[in-house]
Request: fold
Amino acid sequence: MDSKYLSFELEELLDDKQFVAWILKGHKNKEWSSFINNHPEIQSRTKKAREIISLLKDTYDILDEEDILLMWQNIDQFNKSHKSKVRTLKLRRSFSVAASILIIVSLGILSYSYLNNKNTQYQFASSDITDNLEESRLILSDGEQIALNKDESTVSLDNDKVVINNENTIDLSGRKPSNDKKVQMNEVVVPYGKRTELLLADGTKVWLNAGSRLAFPTKFTNETREVYLTGEGCFKVTKNESQPFIVNANDLGIKVLGTHFNVAAYPDDESIETILVEGSVELSKRKTFGLSSKSVLLKPMQKATFSKDEKEIFVTDEPDADVYIAWTEGWFTFSQQTLEQVFTKLERFYNVDIIVAQNFPSNEKITGKLDLKDSLEEVLKVLSDVAKINYRITNNQVFVDKKVKEIPMK
Reply:
């Protein structure tokens, strides 16, 4: 049996295919039993993991990923409504149906947190940094932070060197990763109001929009080329059939060989959107308990919308896919989008708060094109003609109201 299991935490056991197969189907029973008997230090963890999986098996005829996620949601709701009772109850070996739910609550809280809050096995070192930054920043794997002192910065990796804005070269050879487990790769942090372009080691080009973060290795040495995104990024991936490129965006994994696509995965949005311009991509939801999830193949000029609440991927044709990547060239193009959606984008582009008046028709849909190279004042002037709005800028706040129709004089 692989010695890696000696260091496995409870969450990792629950997500390991071989361990789950042993519990559910008795695969390699002798090897597992002997391994655990010879290593008493892991017996407590394996016992808890076994109880959780066994209880899930008893509750559902088929151990389906969607059923498991639904179960965890029910547990969370149960825990909230019976919080005071749960604190005082103790686990018992023999239990009724009601008591079994409480056992799952007690044993499963850690797993529930893991399933719903774990960021695809990677935690950004910069998880709370975008609101406090005035410039984009490169965070190297050894923890060093380098300011990118331009509104639209460029970062490129070349062998063991990183070149910033085509002028500052940093030698990465010989650097050791930080002791901080959160800093395992390089990260680029882009605050609201800024944008950054990256050229990764394999030649893949990435545009990062305002309020985004990307984690990436100096070199792609594994079987896959994996990066981690939160916010919005446009990817033009260098083709390599033997080493697929994977973008991990919270609960969604996007696998490609070589293609051009855009991903919008802001934490405060209700969904994650993937727009495919050319090539093909395969989207799949995050695995649960080592069980593979259904994947969806996206074709050019299609949009995949992953609902965070429903945990489902919805695919629609999108003939105007180019509209979604216009921001990489400094344009904000929108077609039949609500004013609320437009305001949200402008807030991120210009790092402002847009405050609308009470009873403002935010669901009204408009179509237009704005030049992001213009100032906020100039953009709002154009928008005021399209959307028929009045606005007032005070510091970093924009107050918006609907224009009152003029009554013609007699």
